[in-house]
Amino acid sequence: MRIRSSFFSIFLLSSSSSPSSSFFSSRFSSLSAMSPGANGDFKSRVTVVGSGNWGSVAAKLIASNALKLPSFHDEVRMWVFEEVLPNGEKLTDVINKTNENVKYLPGIKLGRNVVADPDLENAVKEANMLVFVTPHQFMGGICKKLKGKVTGEVEAISLVKGMEVKKEGPCMISSVISKELGINSCVLMGANIANEIAVEKFSEATVGYRESREIADTWVQLFNTPYFMVTPVHDVEGVELCGTLKNVVAIAAGFVDGLDMGNNTKAAIMRIGLREMRALSKLLFPSVKDSTFFESCGVADVITTCLGGRNRRVAEAFAQSGGKRSFDELEAEMLQGQKLQGVSTAREVYEVLNHCGWLEMFPLFSTVHQICTGRLKPEAIVHYRDHKA
Amino acid sequence: MRIRSSFFSIFLLSSSSSPSSSFFSSRFSSLSAMSPGANGDFKSRVTVVGSGNWGSVAAKLIASNALKLPSFHDEVRMWVFEEVLPNGEKLTDVINKTNENVKYLPGIKLGRNVVADPDLENAVKEANMLVFVTPHQFMGGICKKLKGKVTGEVEAISLVKGMEVKKEGPCMISSVISKELGINSCVLMGANIANEIAVEKFSEATVGYRESREIADTWVQLFNTPYFMVTPVHDVEGVELCGTLKNVVAIAAGFVDGLDMGNNTKAAIMRIGLREMRALSKLLFPSVKDSTFFESCGVADVITTCLGGRNRRVAEAFAQSGGKRSFDELEAEMLQGQKLQGVSTAREVYEVLNHCGWLEMFPLFSTVHQICTGRLKPEAIVHYRDHKA
């Protein structure tokens, strides 16, 4: 077990914008001074990070386990990008007062041991476990802000879907975290639509790990509940790519729904999407295993995301409009500030495929991007063989 | 290419009862006397067999290709278990007059080259390709009737879902055909809800073959259309078991829907179902390949069957009734004479698992059977770990 320092911190990041800092610091530093960790009993410290829809649910899961597990400090700190609510109150104030994220997960108690903190640096400073759960476009800024501030033997886990595309190829978020902060990062992905887990309906997830099974087991302990079954898999890239690429498949499935093409067509498109996910993952990382795609992060996440996720929903509306309304417009109208990942991931995947000369091998992924940008009509989703880029 | 004799016959079997014979014989023998095959030009003869919902759609697909492919006789004969319609007309008469199966696929033209024949022996006698597509419980009787009547180099393909359970273990329908009739049999399975293919919505299927890729390619030619994409796979048992076992998963998915458990739970149950399908197939036939489960017959068929199939629909109603109404009663009420395969397959699978001492390894399959028989409540579907048989 590599985790030996006294504090774990769980970072649940706001899903609406880049991080800001300070103002609740005094309150939290007094709380952390009371922690068993500070008293030298070496409990892992789950301070906290992040507060979107999924982030809030993750905090709830972790908080319930932190209370039960003797090796964890009770308090789970949640970093919240501060927002002022319509009634003039600050979001962190309301979370700490009501124990609910009234904006992103209304009606669900997070657990009394979850403490919202608007100051990113303060939230991480005593942590030895960091959970990253933000829209992927904010991860660069967050890592920049945390660079050099995370010290000691700290472990991270990423719940972030997406990747950064650089000239030299795609860069997974877990790698960005490892590179920027100098720490190991696992990933947790799977068939988990936040609102359903929030009301404790049965679901599953997959933890992908790079080296230590022991670290993976610790994360499993921290997330696993009777209604949320977590399985560790020795394939961090495969698990992470599943979580990223499935959003592109969900966009395709949304088009099929919007055009009312029926279940056969939808199943075919989901299958072809899963096949392209698997093929691309193996091209990018030859260590990726076939068996990963049978895990919750693979086939189950494709299913749940294509049945009920927001990418599917907005893509359905896009296709219903005949491609005349833009994704930006629909996102603003339909998602109340939440972000759509599938469209930007489709663009990034397209850039990778184009850069590597692989467009013809991935007709479904290519076609999704071309429909999103208006170069092809939504109907092209089932004629993608005619539109090989 | 093993297929050299002059006639192919496509057997599409009625889905309502066991076969009866005769009475249209004179008409059909005159038709077959006009066939090019009889004139010695060695065209493969697609006479015909079967006429349920899926059988009628298969006849439509094949008929459109038989017209286009020079190596096939135009006529596709369809064996129909004779029924008298409410207006007093015979089903075969109406099919041959209107070119529609008014009972099992109303509103869809089958193709002018499809000829309904109520006489099983007559329908097969000049055929060199047989397509079996009936509820699996009728296959035993049909094979008995055809035993010794199928001569020459005849090839078969089975679209039948299900298996026969004998003391010595499960027996796949393709094996029953091979054993009883002494001919090779491929299988065609996949994500194909008949009514959606009937209206030419895009979908896929998988042909599983045992030995000859060339034979498989011939079947692909005969079924493939721009809206129905067929892929051959060298794994007849894997493909056939997918088509059989997915109906058990669909029953589980129906329970989840009936209990309104949400998409995460449904995706988890579908994934666990796919995992048990894969594990059981590999235990029964070690040659079964993982990759088969990524084909249309695997993941896509699980998806489409769990989204829209009749097994799912009846299981949903069963769960909504709290298990108080029987499957027999619901089947009679909801399916207009069509048969439910999932419940009997679940029983057969249970018998195999029980006989082999594997019940604990397949908690989902075991639980489905126990819910169907009233030994467990529908809610047990997500607590199956507590109910290991």
Radius of gyration of chain A: 20 Å
Mean pLDDT of chain A: 85
Oligomeric form: homodimer
Biggest chain pair contact, residues each? A-B, 37 and 37 residues
- Order of strands, main sheet of chain A, comes to 5-6-9-10-11
Largest sheet of chain A, if any? 5 strands, mixed
Structural class based on helices, strands and sheet pairing of chain A? alpha/beta
Topology, number of strands of chain A: 11
H and E order of chain A = HHEHEEEHEHEEEHEHEHEHHHHHHH
Q: How many DSSP H or I helices of chain A?
A: 15
Distance between the first and last residues' Cα of chain A: 48 Å
Q: Please state roughly what percent of the residues of chain A sit in beta strands, choosing from under 5%, 5-15%, 15-25%, 25-35%, 35-45% or over 45%.
A: 5-15%
Low-confidence stretches of chain A: 1-39
Shape of chain A, please? globular
Plain-language structure description:
Two copies of one chain form a homodimer. Chain A is of the alpha/beta class. In chain A, 44% of the residues lie in helices and 13% in strands. The first copy, chain A, has helices spanning 25-33, 53-68, 91-98, 120-124, 139-146, 173-181, 194-198, 213-223, 236-258, 263-284, 296-308, 310-320, 327-334, 342-356, 363-372, and strands at residues 76-79, 100-101, 105-109, 114-117, 129-132, 155-158, 163-166, 169-172, 184-189, 203-208, 228-233. In chain A, the strands form four sheets. Chain A has a five-stranded mixed sheet, with helices on both faces. In chain A, strand 2 and strand 3 (105-109) form a beta hairpin. Chain A is globular.
